[in-house]
Amino acid sequence: MPEQPGTDEHRPPVRIERDGVVATVVIDRPEALNALSPDVLRAIADAFDALRNEADAVRGVIVVGEGGRAFVAGADIRSLSTLTPDEGAEAARLGHRVAAAIEAFPAPVIACVDGFALGGGLELALACDLIYATESSWFGQPEVRLGLIPGFGGTVRLPRAVGLSLAKELIFTGRRIDAAAAESAGLVARRFADRDALLAGARATIDEVSANAWTAVALAKRVLVDAAGTPTATATEFEVAGFADAFRTDDMREGVAAFIEKREPEFSGR
């Protein structure tokens, strides 16, 4: 969806908010429905790189769009309109860099969708571990209506989320689906009545996750990301390696000891 006029060029397009163990990455271009320009994509990647430097203090990340109309309505079409094929490939690689930064982040990342998550916006959400959404949200990959295809991972991650048949239908038609249909398809994990409930629900999930062994959560995410889309024999080897790595942690020793001793564990994150 094209950028809307009136964007404040002096306001950072992405900001990080901290609340205890939770970090919120806010995409702040409401005038452009939070469209993903190259600057916005780089800012999102930089935000996750910065948070990774303090990963021991962050137990979960919420990604949300400002303004209440869109999570991200798509790529910034104006920034794409003059690109050469080589420049288009570089733009796609930048989108993949953002997705890779999210997937490599050791803590769970929840996309909180309130409004449109279209094109690059859906691809950004798909890179996150969970998608939560308000009832008024809409999802789609409309790139074919512009003579394009998904370029930030939609052809890879959408089939994993909803199955190949539905992914093809959504990509080939450019059709949008609402939050109820997205939840039914397995794209959205949970639906909420409004933005406040959405953010509170995401926070509650991260609080629940943070009570567990930090090392185990990070290992589980690593295995899930690495194993996705691989043959079963390869995927199970990723799991075996992750399971073995758990035995190298103090948290595993503490968790097992606490279970045997019938007490609450005191995890150290090591």
Describe this structure in words.
- With 270 residues, the protein is an alpha/beta fold.
- The chain has two domains: 14-210, 2-enoyl-CoA Hydratase, Chain A, domain 1; 214-260.
- The protein has helices spanning 38-52, 77-80, 85-104, 120-127, 154-162, 164-173, 179-184, 195-210, 214-227, 232-246, 250-260, and strands spanning 14-19, 22-27, 60-65, 70-72, 109-113, 116-118, 130-134, 138-140, 176-178, 190-192.
- The strands form two sheets. A six-stranded mixed sheet has the order 1-2-3-5-7-10, sandwiched between helices. The chain has a four-stranded mixed sheet with strand order 4-6-8-9.
- It is globular and about 65 Å long.
Which homologous superfamily in CATH is the superfamily of the largest domain?
Answer: 2-enoyl-CoA Hydratase, Chain A, domain 1
User: CATH topology of the largest domain, what is it called?
Assistant: 2-enoyl-CoA Hydratase, Chain A, domain 1
**Number of E-state strands:** 10
Rg computed from alpha carbons, rounded to a whole number of angstroms:
19 Å
Helix and strand string, N-terminal first?
EEHEEHHEEHEEHHEHEHHHH
Shape: globular
> What structural class results from the helix and strand content?
alpha/beta
CATH class of the largest domain: Alpha Beta
Mean pLDDT: 93
Strand order of the largest sheet: 1-2-3-5-7-10
Major beta-sheet overview:
6 strands, mixed
Second-tier CATH architecture of the largest domain: Alpha-Beta Complex
Strand residue content:
15-25%
Helix amount = 40-55%
As residue ranges, the low-confidence spans are 1-7
Instruction: State the domain count.
Output: 2
Q: State the helix count.
A: 11
